[in-house]
Fold each of these.
Amino acid sequence: MDLPNWLSKEAALNGLQSTDLRPWHIVVSYDQFDEDGDNEHSGVYEEYWVGAKKYKRIYKSDNFNQTDYATDMGLYRHGDQQWPNRAQSQVRAEVIAPFSYADTLQGFHGRNAERTFSGYKLQCVLIERDSGISDPTQYCFEPDSSILRYNRGWGWFQTVYNRIVPFQGRNLAQEVDVTDGGKPYLKLRVETAEFISHVDDADFMPPRDAVGPLGDRVSGVSPQPINMSSLPQWPASMRAQHFTVKMEIVIGKDGHVVSAHAVSGPQEGYKACENAVRKWVFKPYLVLDKPVEVEQKVECSNN
């Protein structure tokens, strides 16, 4: 299977991640749950999309309120200035761009398989490394159909898609439930999905107190890792100990780590952690389709 071509084909049939669509508007309500299953945060994500450089993305919740305006002059932000965290970003990705994680994978191929969920059979594509080492990433569809019903992506996240409706020739799930390690993590409900019949340019103009255009370096985001296989070579005197070294890194526009500095933990472990992290590779982080540098905090642990 030609995995990149397959991903491109399926992404064009599920969700709304494309530049060839008519202008659209979507409203997604969401609940986020903590490790105990309690409702930790609730909110609404709303997006008005006209083009790659003309959209408005709105978060309204108990802990995050922000509106981003994409313009030909750059990206402007009103409200909370931090970038959406992993969960908040996932609210959008799970509904609008369900194949976004698989797009970051390199050196993988796809294999067809049939899986059964509670007696219901789905046709799946399992993502595997060319080296033969299995990866948990997989996408499952209705039999003889392009309708995405399940995926397992980064880490222990699993997503189930229900109440699928056609929208602009695509499959759009109205109910999306995400678990992390088998525990409820996100409950997403599409409240509105509609065409924008008339585009009013004034609706996409950032207010005067909006901040922007946002610069060439951002922080508080979580770029998708591509290769984090490099492990610290701890000094022999530390190998029986349990500890964590915390790092501050800068990821370059090409996704490679350009600087890594340890800031806490046992100092004799600093060099080993820094050397390992400098070899990590991430998917370049894009702002309006342009790569930017990313400041991020990471850890090396010996357990």
Amino acid sequence: MRARRATCTEDDIKLLKTRVVTLSDNTYHADDLHVLKTNKEVDNHNLSQINKSQSHIHEIKAIDK
């Protein structure tokens, strides 16, 4: 995608702006896929979703090789 390479066209920007939904928007759904600007925002959203979950949470430690 051109956005990842920072080579967006004006049409790309216009299209992306049509997809922006705020928390106060009546079309906002917390369970929908979110695209956020920072890792901190992602972490906060993911933690919020986990805390709402009624399921048992399993934590698995990753090992980088």
Amino acid sequence: SFYGNVMFSIGPNNELGGPNDTACHFDIPMRGNSLYLDDELIVDAGELTVPEMRPVNRR
């Protein structure tokens, strides 16, 4: 894992009460991407936008 990367994963979610039960999962780590959570920009081109979420040396 890298600072500011975004991980996209697919696979089972039945352990959390979901309907998807598969034999395996697949992770796709991506660097330099942007991520929104509830319409709030959290990662902008690989940089965390929320100061409290950044490592101390990147604040």
Amino acid sequence: MNKSLKKYWRQIVSLCGLISCSLGICSNSQGVFFKAAAEDLHIMIGTFSMQNTVSYIIMSFCAMYVVRLTGKVKYRRLLLVGSVLTGMSFIVMGFTSNMIVFYILGILRGIGASTFAVAIVTIGIHNWFMEKTGLVTSLIFCTSGITGMLLPPVFAYIIENYSWRAAYVIMGIVSFLLILPALLTDFSLNPSVRNEIPYGMEKEGNRKQGRERGEKHGDMVILIALIFIAVIYNIILGFAQHLPSFGTDAGFGSRIGAMLLSMCMFGNVVFKFVSGTMSDKAGAVRVTMMMAGANIIALVSLFSTTNIFALYGAAFLFGVMYSVVTVCLSLLTMDFFAGESYNRKFPAISFAGGIANAAAVSILGYMYDFSGFYRAVLWLLIALHLIGFLLLVILNYRRKSQI
């Protein structure tokens, strides 16, 4: 590997660690804690999962301002503060029983995680890679799925054999380790900070493409459609964190429930890679439609079978939703906005989606608490899918009108 390529691979490795902590730890592994912690603290699942909601809202909101701060403060300093806040909040959660303290820790974790949130990672990808953007996006986001696939069973084992408190302490340590590569290398969100150019920009054709890419600004209809798409699909994704509870409610043990989440994370990995590579050829709008359709099949299968292997397959297929709200949403935005326009618009889109996902985890938990079953959730999610499909049709029409 020549020296010029190594610098891009270092960026990829650093971004992989950041997204693994942001999604693999702070999001995808939280579901295994809900039931055990809620029962031990004698509270409802929705009440305990609310601290995760608080964290998500704060993270999504603060991420919009992290981009602005990077122009004034070196990004690695922000990242160091963020990693300490995130890791320590998890560790302290293992030593408290007060819900107010949990909510405060959720706020601190949200502030810390905003320095490596999805919006920040995608901006790094957008700034560093002019060529093979879909493939690079897939590779980076796949790592969060691998983390989310491997860690839930580990945390579930620790919870069953030791306690959920010990699992939180270990989670805090792991979160810091994942951010270390970015802290130990000369990582930056923008190649211009290091007097570098994006990957692929050295080609004459891509230099012209780069100039055109920087001129795309979309319009208000497109921005609103993207925001609603982010909200709708993040609400649907919120059900993934309830798969462990769904499995337990269906009559299986907590390990089976954790395995459902792991199968979902396996699907997360597979479909993130597939969606990114397909988007480079078929376009982001078409691929998003295909992935959303696959998720509808997964939802119907989850609620219509009691066969454990069929449930595993349905959970795997449900993982397609992770590719929609990360890879597809990012590439959809790149189709209509670019350059500084993308850097301004995507954090706002991600903020709306983050709030929706955070609220969904608690709302769906309360729907179960008050109804006693998850079937009511199915009809809500399918209705949201229909609205999302209509918005994608609108985007597809707008995309064709721009060509």
